[in-house]
Design brief:
heterodimer, A: six-stranded mixed sheet, 0% helix, B: seven-stranded mixed sheet, 11 strands, globular
């Protein structure tokens, strides 16, 4: 089975500052990695995914993440955040059974 | 992109009644659909996986007789919460994946269930 640890439960950040959300996973098999964003009272929107190939993955809204197999990490970054990036962010992992295991989530609050 | 519609977005019901939630893939064929439950300020917990035309596979600890899942077509899955009680109040979210991209799940907007 796979599991995900999101190291930061809350991340306050000022507008136009960079942000990094940390995600570590554990698995005994090859995995697929995802970052999702959830706005209040809404479902999840896929930000980006790592399935194979290049370890640096670019997603929507200026986000990117880097898969590091040796450190079993998949940290999410954005060089300059906007107020509209205020949301809950979930890291998730799946394997060949395609079931997603989610981390506990990171609340990002962007302040002016 | 792939769109998943979930209905209703919010439902209030009396204790003991049953509630049906629909999940539809609007622009692709969803060979597999997933149902999740999310408590306030917590992560998503997978309840069950359903493949079109087959019985759903429930995760450990999820009562299959209480949470009835039907996936009768490639675009529709339903979750029925039977004899709902206040402890069933939660945010229920569905997702869907297609046969050509099983790795990627597209999520509905969720249904908030409040049982009085």
């Amino acid at each position: 089975a796979q599991s995900v640890t999101q190291l930061d439960s809350q991340v306050p950040v000022f507008e136009e500052a960079p942000v990094e959300l940390r995600c570590n996973y554990s698995s005994s098999v090859s995995v697929y990695l995802f970052w999702y964003v959830q706005y209040p009272n809404q479902g999840l929107q896929l930000l980006l995914k790592y399935l194979s190939g290049s370890t640096l993955v670019k997603g929507i809204n200026g986000f990117e993440a880097e898969f590091n197999k040796s450190q079993t990490s998949f940290h999410l970054r954005k060089p300059s955040v906007h107020i509209s990036d205020t949301a809950e962010y979930f890291c998730a992992v799946s394997a060949d059974d395609y079931k997603l295991s989610f981390g506990a989530g990171t609340t990002v609050t962007v302040r002016a | 992109g792939a769109v998943v519609s979930q209905h209703p977005s919010w439902v209030i019901c009396k204790s003991g009644t049953s509630v049906k939630i629909e999940c539809r893939s609007l622009d692709f064929q969803a060979t597999t659909m997933f149902w999740y439950r999310q408590f306030p300020k917590q992560s998503l917990m997978l309840m069950a996986t359903s493949n079109e035309g087959s019985k759903a596979t429930y995760e450990q600890g999820v009562e299959k007789d209480k949470f009835l899942i039907n996936h009768a077509s490639l675009t529709l899955s339903t979750l029925t919460v039977t004899s709902a009680h206040p402890e069933d109040s939660s945010f229920y979210i569905c997702s869907a994946s297609s046969g050509s991209a099983k790795n990627i799940q597209y999520f509905g907007a969720g249904t908030r269930l409040s049982v009085l």
